[in-house]
Design goal:
The chain is mostly helical and 302 residues long. It has a domain of 72 residues. The chain contains 16 helices and no strands. α2 packs parallel to α3, α6 runs parallel beside α7 and α10 runs parallel beside α12. The model has no long low-confidence stretch (mean pLDDT 86).
């Protein structure tokens, strides 16, 4: 009987201590829950900062911001979806009585434009959080950052493709090709340089910074107004793509001879021979099967 009492006492102590850490200190989870409870009971947002669990901390700041109508607390929420919801429930409701964007009957497009214009005129990008769905919010961020001409906002509020597009727009507005270098995606950087080149006093130099051969060629032709001939490639873009483009644009097989890749060179001769219906150009083709097909095509075509 005495042994049973001892065992029961031991079990009681284990249950009592199970909710505590070392030396009887409550575990971190219990501390977090207590801080959340005290924050809610006393409307004390300072309690949230002591919470270690990220989920509980976010919940604490969300509850406090809504209860106290303090939208500044939303910025402390690490989860983006919860942060957006927080702003919708606090800041956007604060705006509801201050602007015409929530008028009953206004269409979704007009409403989005209303918030975009309001964000710009009030110099407050947070207004974008009230623009509706995720697509509307991104559009608002995009239009706001371009209107303000602040590249740092592109990187802070946008992501992926939209960052490059935003930076490109501002680069064009300011006629500053150096901004294009801030675009991480190579294709976006090249397109930015191509778009801005014709605005610059040195378009050839700007086009020369483009990595992609096709985009660089298009830039030299249309932005720098360089005539399409072999000297264009020799001087500014000595690559197979440039020589191939010049050959096709001018029907000049001489440019094909400048191409280093044998398959591309044969393809170039074939296309020019076909366009000019000139069987002698087929003689320049190295690969037998392509050369024979060239002879057959020209002879049948003529």
């Amino acid at each position: 009987m005495k042994m049973k009492k001892i065992i029961a006492l031991i079990l009681f102590i284990l249950v009592l201590v199970s909710g505590c850490g070392e030396k009887g200190i409550p575990s971190q989870d219990i501390q977090d829950e207590n801080n959340l409870r005290l924050a809610r009971e006393n409307l004390d947002s300072t309690r949230c900062q002591y919470i270690q669990n990220e989920f509980i901390k976010n919940q604490c700041y969300l509850d406090m911001s809504i209860a106290k109508k303090e939208w500044a607390l939303c910025s402390k929420i690490s989860d983006k979806d919860n942060r957006n919801y927080c702003l919708q429930e606090t800041y956007c409701k604060h705006l509801e009585g201050l602007n015409e964007c929530r008028i009953v009957g206004i269409g979704p497009v007009e409403k989005m434009e209303c918030y975009i214009n309001l964000s710009i005129s009030s110099n407050d990008i947070m207004v974008c959080e009230c623009a509706g769905n995720k697509g509307n919010i991104i559009s608002c961020y995009y239009r706001y950052t371009i209107a303000k001409g602040d590249i740092s906002l592109c990187e802070e509020y946008l992501s992926g493709y939209y960052i490059g597009r935003c930076i490109g727009e501002i680069a064009a507005q300011e006629k500053n090709p150096a901004h294009c270098e801030k675009i991480e995606i190579e294709m976006g950087k090249d397109e930015c340089l191509r778009t801005i080149a014709h605005m610059m006093p040195n378009p050839i130099e700007v086009c020369g910074q483009i990595k992609d051969a096709r985009t660089r060629y298009a830039c030299l032709i249309y932005s720098a107004n360089i005539p399409q001939n072999i000297s264009l490639c020799d001087t500014y873009s000595p690559d197979d793509t440039c020589y191939s483009n010049v050959a096709i644009a001018t029907n000049d097989s001489t440019a094909c001879g400048k191409i280093k890749d044998e398959m591309k060179k044969d393809s170039c001769y074939y296309r020019i021979a076909d366009k000019r219906a000139d069987i002698e150009i087929c003689d320049e083709i190295k690969k037998l099967e392509i050369r024979d097909d060239c002879y057959l095509r020209i002879s049948v075509g003529t």
